[in-house]
Amino acid sequence: MNAVRTWAAAQWLLLAACAISAGLGTFAYSALSADDDSETGGLPLKHLADVSLGGRSTRLDYAGLDPDRHLLFIADLGDGEVIVVDTRAARVIARIPDVASVHGVLAIPELSRVYASATGSNEIVAIDETTLKITSRMPGGRYPDGMAYAPDRHKLYVSDQTGETETVIDVRSDTRIATIPLSGKVGNTQYDPVSRHIFVNVQSRRQLVEIDPGSDRVIARIDLPGALGNHGLLVERQQRLAFIACEGNDKLLVLDMRTMHVVSSFELGKDPDVLAYDPGAHLLYVAGEAGIVSMFNVAAGQITKIGDGRIGPNAHVVAVDGATHRSYYPLKSLRGQATLRVMEPRGQATTAP
């Protein structure tokens, strides 16, 4: 069969499969090229698929990935549910209800558990990954948001944004065991596996706070020159760097964790929020409320900006699978539907220089 006929047949089969799957209410792929909603510009990304998430077109927040089970957990803030996507089958397999105004989602594969911050009820909710059912609820302060896990201490740390504290949960009993005062509006929380400490953005003080999980006390406050609204946070263990996204001035700050000094700063798209890192490809992603994603190459301690591109409307959340190098972007409303956009680097971007 000649190439033209082969391509036409492939297109017909793809459209037929999409129609059948959409009729069954499972998933729908877009055409494999970017549409008018995606203008990746100079980003080395190609558009793989759009997966219908169901539910209403309401705000979607954090996402947590379990790469071993190939499950992506997405906070559906407006519907008060955690959406579960099978990333291999590219379809929604569950919607877990009764997680009021869910913001943060953190998958902990070694525990077979997912934690979600139910900001509407000021709770932390534990979900069993096997049954996809809620197993327990814990008090989470006044505005529970982002989370991080300290595995050697069996503790979960939760940002209480307006309560100006960090909530500590013992995951062995799923009980709150401490509340750490931070004296300011709290941004995201991350665990550093090298120091085995927890780091938290305190936005109103333009600081990064270091917590010792052994004592659950603040042991250092690191000033962040150039920060304004330092909300997003990611720790890269291999190169000992912390990346801090500032929503107040659209900046990315890079902190050397050996010296605890800011070593560089980059421009970002408007209102940056969530960061994700692909260690195999040495690629950093920063997603913003305006739908702009910024990409950086991070290798041998050097950070180089690759570029900015529009991934989709309100694409402020990104999750990356380090095994497949695919990146996932929950979109509140794409053509009137809540959608998960799936991208992957073009061939030359998956290999570190």
TrEMBL record:
Coiled-coil stretches noted in the UniProt entry, renumbered to this chain: none
Entries under InterPro entries matching the protein: Haem_d1_sf, Host-pathogen_enzymatic-act, WD40/YVTN_repeat-like_dom_sf
Keyword Signal in annotation: yes
PROSITE patterns named in the record: PROKAR_LIPOPROTEIN
Keyword Signal annotated: yes
Keywords, in A-Z order: Signal
Domain of life: Bacteria
Signal peptide extent: 1-33
PANTHER family: DIHYDRO-HEME D1 DEHYDROGENASE (PTHR47197:SF3), PROTEIN NIRF (PTHR47197)
Name by which UniProt lists this protein: Hydrazine synthase subunit beta
Species in which this protein is naturally found: Paraburkholderia fynbosensis
